[in-house]
# Entry
Amino acid sequence: MLELNNATIKFGGLVAVNDVSFAVSKGDLFGLIGPNGAGKTTCFNLITGVYKPTSGSIKFKGRELSGTPSNKVAQLGIARTFQNIRLFRALSVLENVVVAAFLRHRVGLASAIADLPNSIRETQELKDQAMALLEVLHLDKVAHTRSCDLPYGMQRRLEIARAMATQPELLLLDEPAAGMNPQESDDLLRVVRQIRDQFNMTVLLIEHDMRFVMNLCEKIVVLDHGCEIAQGPPEAIRSNPKVIEAYLGEPV
Ligand SMILES: Nc1ncnc2c1ncn2[C@@H]1O[C@H](COP(=O)(O)OP(=O)(O)O)[C@@H](O)[C@H]1O
Ligand SMILES: [Mg+2]
# Structure
């Protein structure tokens, strides 16, 4: 589904992502880990068209993504969340998801004016779909709360609901469990599994919570200083001496 081949990006003298190659297959729960500054978020920025690679290629379902603008990448079926939460703070939880769904849906301003009865019906459909998503993310009970009034863990889950509202095939999550307590991250783990199983989404995620990553992901790639230092299933990664030295510190 997603293939990075020797992807490289330089910022001045810094090679933030250096010759990185990995492939994510349909249905994978795939982890991207490594120390701060390793180039993980930059990989997401390359995939989603925020940056164009200096060299190398990034393919989505066989199609070259490199140089494709972000809005087009979203239309192709890739959605992401951000390491720093980005929500419409003054809007309700439900409104945040509906706004995201509009991105994908044909209800635009012009069609809304031209075809009012239809667009009202479609907006109701979007609201129903948004509520269904909120149930999956266990946010239905706070649907009408302003997003800025939510506790942090719920804001993170709302970010995921928003990304899912565009009905992507590939979901990129940047540190979804950051700041969560063990109970919250266990709940999130079950939810992400459900997203893959029930919505047939492929998930590529960045995370520092090793319990979360090792329990959830089936394949992991490890970056350090922009370079890929290991790739494999969690059992192999947790005992890999290079990974222990660069990142884990001790076997987990
Ligand atoms: N737009 C940019 N300009 C210059 N340097 C950048 C830019 N984006 C990221 N970097 C640098 O690239 C490196 C990798 O950053 P990042 O991908 O955010 O790491 P992380 O693995 O923690 O997500 C860091 O040294 C960061 O400062
Ligand atoms: Mg990051």
About this structure: The chain is about 40% helix and 25% strand. The domain at 1-77+168-252 is CATH 3.40.50.300 (Rossmann fold). The first helix runs from residue 40 to 47.
